[in-house]
C-alpha cells in the first residue's frame, strides 16, 4: 500500500513514497458485435420504462409515505427493504453497482477572483469522468441545511441523494477542489462487496493513533443502505446544527492528534467516530490506501510531464505494457488547502503555486479527454494553446507530448 499523503499542514512535506500506486485492470474494450437500429433500441428502452411505470403506479412505494423526508434530521428506518421493493417495481433501473457522484460549490459567487472559472473547470473534469464511465452526476449549489455550512454541507447533501437515487448502489462524494487525473481508472467496487463506506486512509493512523490526517473526508463512497443512513446520522450528530457542537470541538481538540481547526470539523469527527465506535462500524468500513482515492496535490503536479512521457513511450512500444508500469497516474488529485473559491489558502502554500498546480492537473486530465477528438495541449502550464495530434499518435510522435 502507498504511504499516507499529508493533509495540508504548515511546513509538512510528503515522503517520496506518497506517489506510489498499484496497477489496475484496463477498462473493458468495446465489442464489434452488430447492434439493432437506434429506433429499435429506443423503442425497447421506452417499453421497459413504460412497463416499470405501470407496475410502480399500482403499488405504493416509500415515496408515497407522507412521513418520508430528505432532511438529515428525520431518520429513515427499514431503508433496505423499501429500496429493494422500489427496485423490484423498477427493474430497468436495477443496475449492479450503479453510482451517483455528488459534488457542489457555494450558492453565491466566489470571493476569490478567478475562483468561479476554476470551479467550472473542476466541474467539467468531473462531468467528463462521469460521462466516460456511465456514472450519474449531481452538482449542487444550494445549502440544504442552513446550520451545516462549509465542510459539513456535504452530509445533508449525500443523505438527500441516497433517498433521491434509490437506483444507485453507491453515492460518491468528491470535494469541489478534487480533480480526476486518471480518466481511465474505476474504483474497484467488486472489492468492496462486504463494505458500506470507503474512504482514503490508513488503519493504524485512524484506529490507534487517531490522527487528523489518518484519512481524508473529501472523497468517499457510501453504500445506499440502512447502514449508510445510520452512519450519516451518527456523523452528523457532532455537526454545527446540534446544541453540543462546541462541546464536541473541545473533545476533538483533546483527542485527535494534529487537528488544525478550532471547531469540530467533519474530518476530526469522522476519525473520532471510527476510532471510538469500532465495534459498531469498523467491519463495514474500508480505509483505502491501495490507490490514490485522495492524492495530495503538491508532489503530484510537478511530475505530470514525466508520467505523460512514460505513458506515451510505453504505448509506442506495446500498449499492454502501460498497465504494468511503475509510473502510474494519480487517480484523484486533491488540492487540499488551496481554497480555489474562497481564496484563504493554507499559508504553507502560495496562491500562485495553487493556481499553477490546478491548471497543470486539469490540463493533464483534459488531454486524456481531448485525445479522443484528436487534440492535445502544447504544454501543461497553459490551458489555451491546443494542437492537433498526428496520425497514429503516440507511435508517430517522439517525446511525451
TrEMBL record:
Q: Which organism encodes this protein? A: Musa troglodytarum (fe'i banana)
Which family is it part of? Belongs to the glycosyltransferase 34 family.
One Gene Ontology cellular component: trans-Golgi network
Q: Which UniProt keywords apply?
A: Glycosyltransferase, Golgi apparatus, Signal-anchor, Transferase, Transmembrane
Recorded GO MF terms:
galactosyltransferase activity
Q: Which cell locations does it reside in? A: Golgi apparatus membrane
The entry's protein name is Galactosyl transferase GMA12/MNN10 family
Main location as per UniProt: Golgi
Extent of Basic and acidic residues compositional bias: 43-55
Q: Which domain of life is it from?
A: Eukaryota
| Membrane topology qualifier | Single-pass type II membrane protein
Q: Where is this region: Disordered?
A: 1-60
Q: Which InterPro entries match?
A: Glyco_trans_34 (IPR008630), Nucleotide-diphossugar_trans (IPR029044)
Amino acid at each position: 500500500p502507498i504511504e499516507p499523503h499529508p493533509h495540508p499542514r504548515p511546513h509538512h512535506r510528503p515522503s517520496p513514497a506518497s506517489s506510489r500506486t498499484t496497477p489496475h485492470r484496463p477498462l473493458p474494450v468495446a465489442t464489434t458485435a452488430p447492434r439493432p437500429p437506434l429506433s429499435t433500441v429506443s423503442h425497447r428502452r421506452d417499453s421497459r420504462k413504460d412497463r416499470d411505470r405501470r407496475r410502480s403506479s399500482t403499488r405504493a412505494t416509500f415515496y408515497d409515505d407522507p412521513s418520508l423526508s430528505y432532511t438529515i434530521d428525520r431518520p429513515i428506518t427499514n431503508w433496505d427493504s423499501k429500496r429493494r421493493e422500489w427496485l423490484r417495481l423498477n427493474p430497468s433501473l436495477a443496475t449492479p453497482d450503479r453510482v451517483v457522484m455528488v459534488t457542489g460549490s457555494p450558492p453565491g459567487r466566489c470571493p476569490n477572483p478567478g475562483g468561479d472559472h476554476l470551479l467550472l473547470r473542476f466541474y467539467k473534469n468531473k462531468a467528463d469522468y462521469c460521462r466516460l464511465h456511465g456514472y450519474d452526476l449531481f452538482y449542487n449549489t444550494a445549502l440544504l441545511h442552513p446550520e451545516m455550512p462549509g465542510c459539513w454541507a456535504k452530509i445533508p447533501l449525500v443523505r438527500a441523494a441516497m433517498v433521491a437515487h434509490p437506483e444507485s448502489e453507491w453515492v460518491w462524494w468528491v470535494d469541489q477542489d478534487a480533480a480526476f487525473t486518471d480518466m481511465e481508472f474505476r474504483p474497484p467496487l467488486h472489492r468492496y462487496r462486504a463494505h458500506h463506506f470507503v474512504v482514503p486512509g490508513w488503519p493504524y493512523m485512524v484506529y490507534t493513533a487517531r490522527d487528523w490526517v489518518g484519512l481524508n473526508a473529501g472523497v468517499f463512497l457510501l453504500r445506499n443502505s440502512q447502514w449508510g443512513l445510520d452512519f450519516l446520522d451518527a456523523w452528523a450528530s457532532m455537526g454545527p446544527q446540534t446544541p453540543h457542537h462546541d462541546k464536541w470541538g473541545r473533545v476533538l481538540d483533546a483527542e485527535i492528534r494534529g487537528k488544525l481547526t478550532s471547531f469540530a470539523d467533519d474530518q476530526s469527527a469522522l476519525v473520532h467516530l471510527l476510532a471510538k465506535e469500532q465495534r459498531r462500524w469498523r467491519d463495514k468500513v474500508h480505509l483505502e490506501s491501495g490507490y490514490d482515492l485522495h492524492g495530495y496535490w503538491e508532489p503530484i503536479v510537478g511530475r505530470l510531464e514525466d508520467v505523460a512521457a512514460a505513458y506515451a513511450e510505453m504505448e509506442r512500444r506495446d500498449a499492454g505494457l502501460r498497465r504494468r508500469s511503475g509510473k502510474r497516474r494519480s487517480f484523484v488529485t486533491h488540492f487540499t488547502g488551496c481554497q480555489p473559491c474562497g481564496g484563504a489558502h493554507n499559508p504553507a502554500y502560495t496562491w500562485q503555486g495553487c493556481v499553477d498546480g490546478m491548471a497543470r492537473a486539469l490540463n493533464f486530465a483534459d488531454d486524456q479527454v481531448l485525445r479522443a477528438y484528436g487534440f492535445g495541449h502544447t504544454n501543461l502550464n497553459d490551458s489555451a494553446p491546443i494542437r492537433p495530434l498526428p496520425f497514429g499518435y503516440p507511435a508517430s510522435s517522439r517525446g511525451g507530448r
